[in-house]
Amino acid sequence: IEEMMIRSEKMSIAGQLAAGVAHEIRNPLTSIKGFLQLLQAGVNRKDVYYKIMIDEIEKMEKITSELLFISKPLTDQKKEEAVSQMIEDVVKLLKSQAKIKNISINYHKEDELYVYCDRSQIKQVLLNLIKNAIEAMEDSGEINVSVLLIDSYVQIDIRDEGPGIPEEVIHKLGEPFFTTKQSGTGLGIMITKQILERHDATLEILQNEEKGSTFRIRFPAIT
Ligand code: ADP
Ligand code: MG
Questions:
Q1: Which ligand is nearest to the CA of 131?
Q2: Which amino acids bring their CB within 6 angstroms of ligand 1?
Q3: How would you classify residue 27: left for phi > 0, otherwise alpha for psi between -120 and 50, otherwise beta?
């Protein structure tokens, strides 16, 4: 396995975010305004215009709700939490979405391992990464989640069978609004990295030998 670390972002996240938000919100607003002006002028094909406007509004809704998550005051509720429980909760949430694409999410609990964390934040991290894995895969395939205790850390791997990530793109993951998806927000990995940083945990992206990628989280082990 070839290892690739996510470049730690030195540019001000707040600055990038402000510029990104302005851009991401202004474009849909401009297009909605344009369509409203057409409707006001009394055009045909109203149904098409309505649909585009609703799509644009939904995109802004998605972005704003993810941004609200970021700006939520950070009242970390850190406790010793069982990793298996958090994974099982998230897998349950995503099962039906995976099933639609004929994807199975495999997780077999072995030794019970604990990490010191804010449970809801780490569930958000697991949700972001497993969701990305599902979205990366075409119809059918497997996502494997595993947990290991290695020396002084607890390692959680989320392994998919998607297309993998091109090397020239890998450093962009985690930049606000970087997305290759039609209806993506490009905020998931940024939020994930921020949460992990607050837990003294790390995120690595590995290219699988055969197919797909592995997102690897490492928490300091509880001593
Ligand atoms: P979004 O999911 O809204 O696009 P993310 O920050 O979660 O935003 O992900 C950013 C980008 O990283 C995705 O658009 C995709 O190109 C890439 N990516 C993330 N996870 C994977 C994965 N498991 N396999 C391939 N590409 C991925
Ligand atoms: Mg995502």
A1: 2
A2: 128, 132-133, 136, 160, 162, 165, 173, 178-181, 184-189, 213
A3: alpha
